[in-house]
């Protein structure tokens, strides 16, 4: 029963996320509100980690599987995709690699830089 | 024969889920056997499902309806990404500046590249708007594309492709660029390839997964805010 109750609590947070998404006029979906609400609930202690942990980790673990139905949708979009194949491929492949490279390198460099300064001030 | 089969399939509400799990299982098995990064279970699983539907001449809409329970879990699963993040809270607090600088740099690169691409290929405004939100999670990306006048179904297809490309190439790219810091790896993967990439990041490690999950939310919100600004620079 523990797992069912955990699932129930997670769904309540999802529901609150959906309520926020409906009420606030921002282009932010319920999943992002839900994620932030869940984080806030755990941080403030409204929810204990033990009250969501097992089911939550299970759901996170099967995440890639959950995307298959959406990804298969590409099969119905062949015509649209073919009409702008080149821009789509450029956007999906080289641009993605560039974004990942920039964001990774900047994060790593900034973190190392700040760490160095920290150790300097400590000395 | 096909008609009989089709009539059966449209009444059965389980086959879509079974097919999804089976295709994903086959993909996982192939990855384990080959050990190759490009043998991504999501990529292979999706291809198997497409192949299966094509062979049996079953329309996508029917599969989609039957596989609805799978998609249903997507929202609680995304919300649950807060759990690994909560467990790595201390690490996040110590590195707030680096984390946000990295995500912002990635978001600006993504939006800027698409604007540049639109100029180079002389894309129409609707085409460019379709591609602008390609690095963020489908739910935000589709809203952004719609708000800017893009082609929404195509936007979601490009977002999914982006995620798969990110997941497949993440480890190779990080090796090439000597991104060894697990925190930086996670931020890079989540910023470039949202939840699909995050699935891969979770496989790489706990810190990678947690940071990638955070990057989905932050990059998503930043993109929602900045995309209209960048859209102003489109040809």
Q: Give the number of helices of chain A.
A: 8
Coarse shape of chain B: globular
Q: What does the radius of gyration of chain A come to?
A: 21 Å
Largest sheet of chain A: none
Low-confidence stretches of chain B: none
Work out the radius of gyration of chain B. Answer: 19 Å
What does this structure look like?
The complex is a heterodimer of chains A (123) and B (235). With 123 residues, chain A is mainly α. Chain A has two domains: 66 residues, no CATH class; 53 residues. Chain A is 80% helix and 0% strand. Chain A has eight helices and no strands. In chain A, helix 1 crosses helix 3. Chain A is flat, with a radius of gyration of 21 Å. Chain A starts with a helix and ends with a helix. Chain B has 235 residues and is mainly α. The longest helix of chain B is centred in the last third of the chain and has 26 residues. Chain B has two domains: 71 residues, no CATH class; 150 residues, no CATH class. Chain B is built from 14 helices and no strands. In chain B, helix 13 packs across helix 14. At the A-B interface, helix 1, helix 2, helix 3, helix 4 and helix 5 of A face helix 2, helix 3, helix 4, helix 5 and helix 6 of B.
Strands, helices and their partners?
The complex is a heterodimer of chains A (123) and B (235).
Chain A: H1 2-23, H2 30-44, H3 53-61, H4 63-66, H5 68-72, H6 78-83, H7 85-92, H8 94-122
Helix pairs in contact in A: 1-2, 1-3
Chain B: H1 2-11, H2 15-34, H3 41-55, H4 60-66, H5 68-72, H6 74-80, H7 82-87, H8 89-94, H9 96-120, H10 125-131, H11 138-147, H12 152-176, H13 182-204, H14 206-231
Helix pairs in contact in B: 2-3, 9-10, 9-13, 9-14, 11-12, 11-14, 12-13, 13-14
